[in-house]
Design brief:
Helices cover about 40% and strands about 20% of the residues. It is α+β, with helices and mostly antiparallel strands. This is Glutaredoxin family protein.
């Protein structure tokens, strides 16, 4: 599950939400947007919006680019290597 931390009225945040909507349709990802002002847990990201989180950890900051967000959605390198080696 991915969370996109945003602020209403933020132009970059709106673009990032559009990019995530397109990636959802293309890749079948599950994500939601979270208004930073509605939950104090996200206040630490105030200067970095939008922020994309994977399982609560930031994987992309300050970007609305569809290509940058798509790169961030890829599994971590160690996970890709493990899968390519067929190690269980």
């Amino acid at each position: 599950m991915y969370t996109l931390v945003v602020r209403p009225g933020c132009h970059l945040c709106e673009q990032a939400e559009q990019s995530m909507t397109e990636l959802e349709a293309e890749l079948g990802i599950v994500w939601c947007s979270q208004d930073i002002d509605s939950d104090p847990r996200y206040s630490t990201y105030s200067d970095d919006l939008p922020v994309l989180l994977r399982e609560g950890r930031p994987i992309a900051r300050l970007t609305s680019s569809k290509s940058a967000l798509a790169r961030a959605l890829k599994p971590p390198l160690w996970h890709r290597l493990r899968n390519s080696l067929h190690v269980n």
